[in-house]
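During the no-cost extension, the postdoctoral fellow (Dr. R.K.) reprocessed legacy sequence entries with the updated structure-token encoder. One reprocessed record is reproduced below for audit purposes.
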Amino acid sequence: MDTKKLFPLSMTGAAIMLLGGCSLLPSAPTQFQFPTPNWTMSKLFEVPTSKPRTTPAGTNSALPAATVSPTAPDCVNSAGLAGETVPNGTFMSPGSAFMKTWTLKNTGTCMWGKGYALVFDRGDKMGGADTIPLTASVPPGAVYTFAVNLVAPAADGEYTGYWKIQTPQRVRFGVEPDGLTAFVVSIKVTQAPVCAAQDRRPAENGTALQATYAVIEPVLDSKLVEWESPLEYPVPHVALGETANGARLGLRWDRKYLYLAVRVTDSVFAQETSGAANLLQGDAVELLLDMDLRGDYCNSIMSGDDYQLGISPGYLPDPSLQSPAAYLFYPLGKKGPVEFDVSAALTAAPDMKGWILEAKIPWSLFGISPAGGESFGFVFSVADNDQYGSIHQDGILSTSPRRTAPPNPMLWGTLQIIAE
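Re-encoded structure tokens follow.
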């Protein structure tokens, strides 16, 4: 079929081919924070809905603003550690600035809100603030990412800081199982170089991927005729949450566009978001790109040349309810809906049930025009929602086993642009 120009949110047309139906069966959700439109403090959690959504979800995709928490003497404060950045034992150069985050799940019965804060408890403070207030109300069962800006000490050695949550009544608590255990940040400072700029990320970040030159421009029709069969690269790692999906990826390029094709095996297709900032709370794909790999190779925090792009296939069982859409989460100054060509389809083959997505992404979106031979930081991921009728994410499949939330460019893989 012919490719059509697609416009996120207010699209009037979509290049969609419906190849078959899909079985929609519920499963138990696993909650965690993703994505991160404001980089550090976006909190997403499951919001049930009775039918596919066709309007922006607004506050349905994020926790509400913090409100005053009552004393509530009969409720219980407890937390579980759902994820963190900067693994314990990370090597740092003296004076290095970094951000440590802990994503915690409210496992108690109290609502966390105004008056709750992240507080330094003991150990090595590393320049952190004494108190960092919550900015949202966190009901039981939801998650929240606490973040603190730190600086590695000047002297060599091992440093550990202990942090807790403090209630409005100034009672401190940590994480399960006993509720007393502080969550920690632990680093090793050394004068020796711990990072040297290269043109390729280490193998433990995932296999380096290659985009070969598109001698024939791929037709976006979800048939994958112009692509190798199977597509060249597996998407093998469950980086966050839980998912039983499988996926394979193909990449091509020319001087105007980056082309991608992905085939996802998925027994339950669920994409019922607004197609905007919450689109990764449904079945969708994500690209992380560092356009200056060597220049900021040792930077663990996203900068202005790092991009987080989500692409929704739309609501494939009934494309009239939602067309394909794309949303740029980062850089913050450019975030919002973006335009390019997308084709998507369900597949009904018993041994390959799932969906296909093809995209033609202009390089101008990333501010470059490649000539061939370049290397970029890169991660490709597939978001999975197995909760039909809900805005929710069960897990994420990725080309990098070290894909984190918030994204850390030092843990991304590599995309090599192969010359003609």
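The mean pLDDT is 83. The CA atoms of residues 158 and 188 lie 4 Å apart. The remaining legacy entries will be reprocessed before the final report is submitted.
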